[in-house]
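Appendix C reproduces, verbatim, an entry submitted by the partner laboratory led by Prof. M.T., so that reviewers can inspect both the input and the predicted structure.
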Amino acid sequence: MQTKTAAVFAVLAITAFPSVLGSSATPIEKVLQMLGDLESKIIGEGHDAQKVYDEFAEFCEDRSRNVGFEIKSGKASVNDLNAAIEKESATQASLNAKIEELASAISVDEADLAAATGIRAKEAAAFKAEEAELVEVIGTLERAISIVEKEMGGGASMMQMKSASSVAQALSVMVEATSLSSADASKLTALVQNSQEDNSEELGAPAGAVYKSSSGGIVGTLQDLFDKAEAQLDSARKTETKSVQAYQMLAQGLKDEIKYATADLNKSKKNLGASAEAQATAEGDLSVTSKDLAGDISTLSTLHQDCMVGAEDFEAETRSRGEELKALATAKKVITEATSGAADQSYSFLQTQLTSGADLANFEAVRFVRDLAAKQNSPALAQLATNMAQAMRAGSKTSDPFAKVKSLISNMIEKLLSEGQACDGKSILR
């Protein structure tokens, strides 16, 4: 507000421009000198304006190039981030499928291991029961064979055993002689009967063959049962060993599969978390980059618009200065041609056409206010310049052509001051 008010006061100062007729030089020379000075001033302003515009144009070019590069980089970054997000999304889908597959495989292996362990436990229990039974049978047979061999040496019941018609009777004799317990006798009787039944089935002979009355027969029978029991125990133990080895191999294989699958599962879960984190980071970066890209695009658009407006304003000012220079050149030419005859005629011309230095002051005052209105983008000053020009044309025949202009400027100053106070010091000349 203070700057604009000072500018208006500067216009008032122009009204005190001294008369050219008071100079020692001829009026024509002084007028031409003033026209030349004004022409030089306009040309200097043009050079200054050209310099400012060149700097402005260079700024526009550099800024446009830099923003364009930022936009290109931003688009490339957006494409890269979108590709990264798609890649991480595909990676997560693959890892989820792998995790599901590994979890299912581990579940199956654990179920197989549990089933195999259960079967092995049952087999081990059955083997222990069979082994205990066979060990007990072998012990009983060993004792029986030992007793029979002892009786053959002349025991008290030897005669009774010889008269027995079957192994069962012989065993009964041994029980009566307290050589053999009744429990062992029952077991041996059952073993003999089972053995005789098995042999009868194999040979096609009837079961329950008659026992030959000799001590050698019973020893042979018992020895045969002893051999069979030992063979059966040995077979059972070998089978148990093979079963244990088979179970251990199966269990170890399943445990290894579970171990490696679990490690792979944990690794896949860790990679899944890392992929999800990378995707989240890329999405965050994409949001920021997209926002920056939109801002750069908007900045470039605004920059182009501002630079175009600046170029148009410069062209308009250049045309205006060209028109002013052309008008000054025409004025100099008219004055020179019109006053080439005599100084008196020139003086008369100045009195009739220019009156005094006021006409030149009028020209420069109007131009100053008009330029100030353009620079400040002020409709009020533009209207003042128009009113000043009209007042000068209307007052050219009066003795004081500036009287109306002074009144217009004074009114303008009062208006500015009044509006400045109302706006609390804020500028209204927009």
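Residues 49 and 193 are 135 Å apart (CA to CA). Additional entries are available on request from the coordinating office.
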